[in-house]
Amino acid sequence: MGLPLSKILAIPGIIGFAIFLYITCFRDELYAMHMVPFILYLVGIYFLQPAIDWWWYQKYPPDVEAPLRKIFEQRLLYYQRLSEKNKQKFRTRVALYIEANDFRPQVMEDIPEDVKGIVAANIVQLTFGQKDYLLNMFERIVIYPGTFPTIQYPKSFHSSEIFAEDGVLLFAMDHLMPGTLHSDQYFNIGLYEYAKVFRLSNPQRTYPELSEELWADFEKISRFPRKKVEGFVGLENLDVWAVSVVFFFSFPEKFKTQLPDLYQTHSNLFNQHPAKTENPVIASYEEKRK
Q1: What pLDDT does residue 50 have?
Q2: Which strands, in side-by-side order, build the sheet including 140-144?
Q3: Which residue, among 241, 152, 252, 259, has the nearest Cα to 199 in the 3D structure?
Q4: Using CA of residue 248, residue 251, residue 252, residue 253, what is the dihedral sign?
Q5: Residue 290's pLDDT is what?
Q6: DSSP code of residue 166
Q7: Nearest alpha carbon to residue 62 among 100, 97, 92, 99
Q8: pLDDT given for residue 289 in this prediction
Q9: 129 shares a domain with 19
Q10: CA–CA distance, 83 with 171 (Å, rounded to integer)
Q11: Is 109 found in the same domain as 80?
């Protein structure tokens, strides 16, 4: 994305401050008072920066960088099946999600941009049928290079987790990437954790109570036995509902055949038919408000 509007607006303030700082230091101290308006201007820009940039990006929707777009086009099945109009909408939402959230690396210096894009792609896919797609209760995403222990699970090296009290998601990069880009071979921990975030962010909605007996159906749909999923996540006592959401999006045709009632329940909840090409969204936001 280009330079944010807040940084562009800050440029004249910085220039004005620098000019009067120079004059004050090398010519006349009386000019110091002229720095005050520029200081107040820059402070205002600093505190209003999120609102300014968000307004700007809503008015002029951004797009993802070319390397990430190439990954979507070549390796992300959900994206590949969208119409051109919806592909643009998907990319814009990914770019806005990256801009709106705080990504923090752990045990490494930086988070690769493609990893940020894959994180965002998971939530955008999950909420593509929703007007509110950011799920602002969770605004910090922590990325580890590999599996990790945490305060909640100190003895278990695992690949993903949410910490609801602080609004934090944690992912192991080496599990997140293949789970998203090869969801027919690996369990998608991105969709799994964001499904739990979706439920926490929308407590007013109705969610089905799912039985552990559904694992037999899940294995027929995905060919992933329960132990394989537990091994990939690194934790036992998995959230059955969140697992069902992963398979709903990863294997929509098989899910619809094996569990037609649950498929319809998820479709109604997420306002999507993921088995449908071009446009998985069932009803536009305007239609849903009527």
Answers
A1: 67
A2: 102-105, 140-144, 168-172, 160-163
A3: 241
A4: negative
A5: 40
A6: G
A7: 92
A8: 44
A9: no
A10: 30
A11: yes
Amino acid at 160: S
Do 40 and 15 contact (CB within 8 A), yes or no?
no
Structural domain for 131, as ranges: 66-289
Q: Are residues 171 and 152 in the same domain?
A: yes
Question: CA 103 to CA 168: how far, in whole Å?
Answer: 10
Question: End of a domain among 59, 85, 104?
Answer: 59
pLDDT mean values, one per 10 residues, the chain (290 residues): 71 87 84 85 78 70 89 95 93 92 95 97 96 87 97 94 94 97 96 97 94 96 96 94 98 97 97 88 63
What's the structural domain count of the chain? 2
Residues 47 and 191 in one domain: no
Residues 183 and 166 in one domain: yes
Single-letter residue type at 14: I
Given its phi and psi angles, is residue 237 left (phi above 0), alpha (psi -120 to 50 degrees) or beta?
left
pLDDT of residue 56: 67
CB 235 within 8 A of CB 156: yes
Whether residue 27 is found in the same domain as residue 78: no
Are 18 and 161 in the same domain?
no
pTM value is: 0.83
